Amino acid sequence: MTPTEAAAIALQDHAVLWSMGEVRASDVVNAACDALVAGLDTPALRILAACTRAEADYDVHDLLPPALAELGLTSCPGGSQTGQEAAARALARRMLAGELTPREFTFRIHQRHGHELPVTERLAELDDEYDMLEYSDRTVDQVNAEVMAEARRLAAHPALLDEPTDSPGR
After folding, report:
1. Do 40 and 71 contact (CB within 8 A), yes or no?
2. Model-level pTM?
3. Rounded distance between C-alpha atoms, residue 57 and residue 10, angstroms
């Protein structure tokens, strides 16, 4: 994966996580700055990257959709199933990058989706297993390994590039 592809995926991940309330608007602006540094450059991306932290909370909602569109990235409404699945994939990539522990990852997935989202059902079950470890014959390392495998499975799904664009959400 090239640095520009990685930056595009990171920007899209931040966008979907922001739409789900998982990250701050200023984190999206930082991802836009990183995308510019990586070589992505469009007028709307420059405007988004120029937001101050104080402006981000007010302006990201309007500036993000055109920046994503100019880059050929998808904007997912936070409440849609596509958005929920994209957020789960973004969290999986964050966990695999070491930004979350396996336990934190499953807890956030379980808290956000319960057992209702098919692509994260096994992660919700694994979160339950963490809670029951003292009563089972499994170890934390065994559950962590299974969480890592599930995260790799989720993260391997292609990014939302080239898919139909939903209307911007939040």
Report:
1. yes
2. 0.84
3. 19
